[in-house]
Amino acid sequence: MTSRHRTLEDTDLDRSDRRLLENIRDYGWHVISVAGDRSAPAWSFSVGLGVTFDHPELIVVGLDITTMHAMISNAVAVIENGGPLQNHSLSSEVLEGYSCYFRDVHANWYRPFLGYASWFYRGGDFGCLQCFWPDNQQRFPWDNGFDATCRELQPFLYEPDRSKALADRWLVAQSNS
């Protein structure tokens, strides 16, 4: 019988696949980071939280990779300590000095943004939360007065409609790579 997620027993694994699966086995989760460029900012996401903690995966977009990895790590610590993060929840424990807001990611965005997680779960049968970070005034991208220079760094992956999600720059960058 095939597992609902990938395992180290799978026979079609390459070196990167094995590393991801070993990290999930040893630590309970793994972070994938996708480098940004002029056309689209970087993003990072977790893989393995659904199996280890029965919790949605996490994605952060638009900051430097080191910061996003630390944010996911901090969020996992919240989850490990019994504080599940949920749709429309706020946490001050993810990014020092700021509260972050979580929204469910629509499944339309799994393939373009969470490809390795889709591979791990053998399809789209998993949940994911986008972690939104605020501007220096603690406003979020949907708030009036949000810093316009930060607005283009975070797509609205909770929106199923491409035009409302404002994710074109990431999709165009991927199609050009």
Describe the secondary structure blueprint for this structure.
Elements: H1 15-27, E1 30-34, E2 43-47, H2 49-53, E3 57-61, H3 65-80, E4 89-95, E5 98-104, H4 110-113, H5 115-120, E6 128-132, H6 148-151, H7 162-165, H8 168-175
Class of secondary structure makeup: alpha+beta
Main sheet record: 6 strands, mixed
Shape label: globular
Spatial strand order of the main sheet: 1-2-3-6-5-4
Chain-averaged pLDDT = 93
Q: In angstroms, what is the radius of gyration?
A: 16 Å
Count of folded domains: 1
Strand content: 15-25%
Report the order of strands and helices. HEEHEHEEHHEHHH
Number of helices: 8
Distance between the termini: 36 Å
**What's the number of extended β-strand segments?**
6
Helical proportion?
25-40%
The low-confidence runs, each spanning 5 or more residues with pLDDT under 50, are none
Keywords:
177 residues, alpha+beta, 6-stranded mixed sheet, 6 strands
Description:
By secondary structure, the protein is of the alpha+beta class. The protein has helices at 15-27, 49-53, 65-80, 110-113, 115-120, 148-151, 162-165, 168-175, and strands at residues 30-34, 43-47, 57-61, 89-95, 98-104, 128-132. The protein has one domain. The mean pLDDT is 93.
